[in-house]
Amino acid sequence: MGIKIDRDLCIGCGTCLGACGSGALELSGDGYAVVNDNCVMCGMCVDACPVGAITLEKDGGESDISAYHGVWVFAQQTEGKILPVAYELLGKGRELADALGVTLTAVCFGSNVQQPEKLIHAGADKVILADDPKLGFAMDLPYADLLTKLIRERKPEIVLYGATAFGRSMAPRVAATVKTGLTADCTILEIDGETKLLRQTRPAFGGNLMATIICPNTRPQMATVRPGVMPALEPDTSRTGEIERLTGVEIPDTAVTLLNTITEITGDNITDYDILVVGGKGVGAKKNMKYVKRLAELLGGNYGVSRPLIDAGWAEYKHQVGQTGCSVAPKLLLSLGVSGAIQHLAGIGGAQTIIAVNTDPDAPIFNVAHYAVVGDCIEFMQEMIAKLEAKQ
Amino acid sequence: MKIIVCIKQVPSTNEVRMDPVTKTIIRDSRQAVINPFDTYAIEEAVRLKEQLGGTVYAMSMGIPATERLLRDAMARGVDKSLLLTDRAFAGADTLATSYALSLGAAQLGDFDLIICGKMAVDGDTAQIGPELSAQLGIPFITDVCEILEASEKKLRCKKVTDNGFAEVEITLPALITVSKDINMPRFPSISGVRFSLTAPFRSCTAADVGADTERCGLTGSPTQVVRSFTPDRSHKAQPLTGSMAEIADAALKIYEEVR
Q: Which of 150-189 (B) contact A at CB < 8 A?
């Protein structure tokens, strides 16, 4: 696939150089137009050429989707440690691979990646591992380039990514480079019994609408899934599989240089907690935030807040739960004095159990909560704190 | 410095109306606003211009009425606008949209920097920035929360990562997406509003930017929506009642069960 310039027709006029928006065309020493690596195959030079010397060739081989087989999961790591979302994706990936009767492969890039066999235990048949000091910190460009290369060589039919900050950044770069679809933040993934296509269901409009999306004509079919949405399988240490360590991988320098990383205290990320205490406007005053924090601490969890509290300066942005903050998926979420604006509800859909406390019996939060307490959240927190402290 | 800001028209509410035939969203210009995340992109571009000099372009792909929002951006410090509008662009997914935007950027010529909001609040995909960078073959950084140093050649940025922040340097031309804590967008000035009302406005069709219509809109979109539905919200929460002490006991029992 690419731009082809017919030297028999080219008159070396240079019109195409001006038409190209990517700086991908130049005149060779002998006076013909040539294409360089900047080409995005937009085809603008094709129309600009006054003598019809330029054509955009589409590769028949690459668009042949029957050549694509197998399910891949991109397993993200941080400091050599594989993130939990990788195991969650493998749980779903196993189901999809079994429905298609194909293999499940985990693809992991990093430096000194610890225990890659855990990916096998979590359901993978095979692991492709690129272990290189240059891959230690997850950077979009080298990761996307390497993954794109592997996808082009080995042609998986499905690739799943965790919708982490990094996954949401790298996966679309890969998608647009291999020119395929990518469905963000899927909550349901299933194989269509008849067509064998991946049916990808995701919320949009802050969760007001669910859409099921397919990618019928290009491969791979790619999706991101938020952490905490899919359950991981129980690790099965008796499972065996091949761990292929890529050798001779060249990781060229890119135009982006990492200067420094600032790791926040591990576990300070509210998405990492099984228990979350989330305060809303009903908390009433900044001084009452101490109850929210204390209750979270006693329950062994962390605290979050709805957006108005961020705007009021009662908590830092990293504690914001909702569409413009974090989406969370804890085992238990205590929602205290949160009315439940749609943007907030969009961020708590993954919670397994929600206990909501609000003085307004008609608050929308009760439409998604599992347990409803109509009452004052401060009183509730004080009572909970007293009981938990008494137990200590 | 030549900076392009990509903006998207989004509904001001999240109330959704669907076209039952094409299963795509009916976009109604009456209540449209600039995607909130893009307002931070506009502000950051204007600040860079004020610091380094240059021109800021606002670009959007959308219905003709998007002109109003591009003019609003011009009231906030943007110098020029480009609207890509054509029926051929309709129904585009992120790949087809980023393709169209890449042609728009090419049309504007030698840019140094493209700034996008981190994501749009209607689709929530956060894919356009990275996909556009791939279409143009330029480097990118997502989730930038602070520009620490800027020159005509390079940007030094602080970005949000999964476990904290990273400081990265990027060689221009490049694309960045910005998070909402990067700045506080300004209000339009009176002179800005005056300028925006009378400034020349440019819109292009698919043919104007030399688009391959096979790669635009619904036709050029690899993903297809096969079903849309409103999620079931009919479930009833189980009430916890009694004195607050009894309620707290019940809540602690649930906590013990699920932890």
A: 156, 160-171, 174, 180-181
